[in-house]
Design goal:
- With 167 residues, this protein is of the alpha+beta class.
- The protein has one domain.
- It contains two helices and eight strands, in the order H-E-E-H-E-E-E-E-E-E.
- It has a five-stranded antiparallel β-sheet. A three-stranded antiparallel β-sheet has the order 6-7-8, covered by helices on one side.
- The N and C termini lie far apart (122 Å).
């Protein structure tokens, strides 16, 4: 009597080596998938931060542009601050009485925050939260130059606004 094993019995299961290889391949695929997901998430966070920075820049420029458009004077007030006094007609249109005594709008920068304070209307709000520098220069009494810096290192950008005095 011979004891032969049928050849088809061996193919019914998997060997330990096959299982180990399958687990290794599965683990490698899982690791690759996880690292790709982490890279996508990191890129997404960077893109969101960049979009916030761009929106903040636009808000700063629009706020300053709007205030300077109806300005009688734009001057360095103190270190890191800018005072904008409105033209009398503009002050009257905003309900400031008497319009000739408009204390104006004060922009103050400290620790990345740019604060806009309307002294006549007693309103204040934060215009920017991540501004890296705010410089105001009076150029020969003819114009005021405002430099706004964002970011640090290679990612930094500077915007320059110039207000020319009307004669």
């Amino acid at each position: 009597m011979s004891t032969r094993t049928p050849t088809h019995a061996r193919s019914a299961g998997h060997t330990l080596l096959e299982l180990v290889v399958a687990l290794a391949v599965g683990g490698l695929l899982l690791t690759l998938g996880m690292s790709s997901a982490a890279e996508v998430e990191s890129s997404s966070r960077k893109l969101e931060a960049r979009a916030r920075d761009i929106a903040e820049r636009e808000l700063i420029v629009e706020s300053l542009r709007r205030d300077m458009a109806g300005a009688q004077s734009v001057r360095l007030h103190q270190r890191n601050s800018l005072r904008i006094v409105r033209e009398p007609a503009r002050a009257r249109a905003l309900g400031i009485v008497p319009a000739l005594n408009d204390p104006g709008v004060l922009y103050t920068w400290s620790d990345g925050l740019l604060l806009r304070e309307d002294l006549a209307l007693d309103r204040r709000h934060v215009v920017a939260r991540r501004l890296s520098d705010f410089q105001v220069d009076d150029l020969a009494g003819l114009e005021t130059q405002i430099d706004l810096s964002f970011g640090e290192g290679e990612a930094s950008t500077t915007l320059q606004l110039i207000w020319e005095r009307r004669t």
